[in-house]
Structure prediction request, 220 residues.
Amino acid sequence: MFYRKVEAGCSDKKPMKLYRPHLDARETESRLRDLEVLLAQPSYREMRPCEGCRMPCACSSSEVCPCLCGPGCTHAPVQMSSEGDRYPVEPKVAELVFGFNCLRVCPPFWSCEGHRTPDGTIQRVPQVWFYTRSLVYPRLIGDWLARLYFKKRIANPWHVCVSYSESSLDTGFSIEPDLKLMATVCLEGLHQDVVVLSDALVPDLRTLAHEYLARYRPAG
Prediction:
């Protein structure tokens, strides 16, 4: 599911406007409150983002103090995985998974840093799958990804897709490269994009959430 402004219709005809959803005031306000929930989340400097982390901190040996928290935490790849001892989060995608944990409203449930087959063919591309209880968050992330590519902050187009896990009836989402829009796929280039996404995810989404609130909240 790639969230973007849609112009439907054939390339040789005038685009056709289709159904335009009309949200009532309560639905709109619910989405705006979800944006406020995102903005109200503490940073990793205020509260540990990795669920279940009980690593003693450096300053007082506390199991809740966040003094050591950060994207480069050496314990995070193990703490962020449901099977950390066997399958820690892969290093090239660990900081992006950490970012999703820091959002606290889009918990990640699967990730891959991307892999090649022995002959060099790309077998998997970098991805992070996440759950959310509000559809405004995938909308926000999709808009953010489109803006990053438009502003040339990332080299490749990325998008939001619907996904799911066999173990749950919840609908999930993933962020991943949009291969349909890519003439060639370079895994190293995608890894460079992941670095940008990791650094920008939380601050950019917070900025965009403020922008949405200013744009969509009724005056008065």
Notes: Strands lie at 108-112, 115-116, 122-124, 127-131, 158-164, 171-177.
